[in-house]
């Protein structure tokens, strides 16, 4: 039986992905003199700040060039730039259909949690006026392994006191869908069906993300 919904933030509730990418592009050009390819955009989605940096450096064989301390400084620099980009976020930046969906979920007595990899998640939720809507917000800063590991989704389920098999997780990134599946939850993807083929159910955009559709898909998975 489904008792809870666990949402990703970036790409599901609001579209901050292009701002993360803009910040990485700036850092790569400023600090390493390289141009990051548009193809990287999809691959960086859902990854933690440090995992994103490691991925960018790896492609350009630069991992060994920087010490751990320097890498921490680089991620801090990226975050300062990113924070400027998100400073004017308002409830108008909530993706279509999400406010109604969150209200419907709450009104139907399901529990609601957030499982974002972002350490800026609380600040963003507050800017969107959605902070109060969640029963639990999993803290990305305390999970050992980022997505695709299951840690953040398991932490969210634990925070709600709901067993993972009674949760539906909602994600836009491949790494996020893998995180949900590794946590043994039902995975709903938002985006390209071919890309998110590991999900149990996929909608192309947030408008199509409705409570009856998700419950129907979950029911269908039982037969
Ligand atoms: C988001 C983004 C990632 C970003 C990560 C960490 O995850 O998709 O691109 O690297 O958070 O963000 P921050 O640097 O703000 O801690 P999610 O899980 O909300 O999709
Ligand atoms: Mg996401």
Write a structural description.
- By secondary structure, the protein is α/β, with parallel strands linked by helices.
- 44% of the residues lie in helices and 10% in strands.
- It has nine helices and six strands, in the order βαααααβαβαβαββα.
- Strand 4, helix 8 (174-182) and strand 5 (186-190) form a beta-alpha-beta unit.
- 1,6-di-O-phosphono-alpha-D-glucopyranose binds at residues 8-11, 17, 20, 44-49, 52, 79, 116-120, 173.
- 1,6-di-O-phosphono-alpha-D-glucopyranose is lined by residues 8-11, 17, 20, 44-49, 52, 79, 116-120, 173.
Secondary structure: helix percent: 40-55%
Annotation field: number of helices = 9
Total strand segments: 6
What are the secondary-structure elements, in order, as H or E? EHHHHHEHEHEHEEH
Distance between the termini: 14 Å
The overall pLDDT, averaged over residues, is 96
Taking the sheet with the most strands, its summary is:
6 strands, parallel
Radius of gyration: 17 Å
Low-confidence stretches: none
| Largest sheet strand order | 3-2-1-4-5-6
Binding site for Mg(2+): 8, 10, 171-172
Organism: Pseudogracilibacillus auburnensis
Keywords: Carbohydrate metabolism, Isomerase, Magnesium, Metal-binding, Phosphoprotein
Pfam families: Hydrolase
């Amino acid at each position: 039986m489904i008792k809870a919904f666990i949402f990703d933030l970036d790409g599901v509730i609001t579209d901050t992905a292009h701002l993360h990418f803009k910040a990485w592009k700036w850092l790569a050009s400023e600090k390493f003199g390289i141009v990051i390819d548009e193809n990287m955009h999809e691959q960086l989605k859902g990854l933690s700040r440090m995992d994103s940096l490691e991925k960018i450096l790896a492609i350009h064989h630069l991992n060994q060039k920087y010490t751990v301390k320097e890498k921490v400084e680089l991620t801090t620099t990226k975050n300062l730039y990113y924070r400027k980009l998100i400073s004017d976020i308002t409830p108008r930046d909530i993706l279509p259909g999400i406010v109604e969906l969150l209200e419907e979920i709450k009104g139907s007595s399901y529990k609601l949690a957030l499982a974002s990899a972002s350490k800026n998640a609380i600040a963003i939720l507050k800017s969107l006026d959605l902070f109060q809507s969640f029963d639990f917000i999993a803290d990305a800063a305390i999970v050992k392994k980022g997505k695709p590991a299951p840690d953040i989704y398991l932490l969210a389920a634990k925070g709600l006191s709901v067993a993972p098999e009674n949760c539906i997780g909602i994600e836009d990134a491949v790494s996020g869908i893998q995180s949900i599946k590794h946590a043994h939850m039902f995975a709903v993807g938002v985006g390209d069906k071919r890309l998110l083929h590991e999900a149990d159910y996929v909608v192309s955009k947030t408008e199509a993300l409705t409570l009856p559709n998700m419950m129907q898909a979950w029911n269908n998975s039982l037969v």
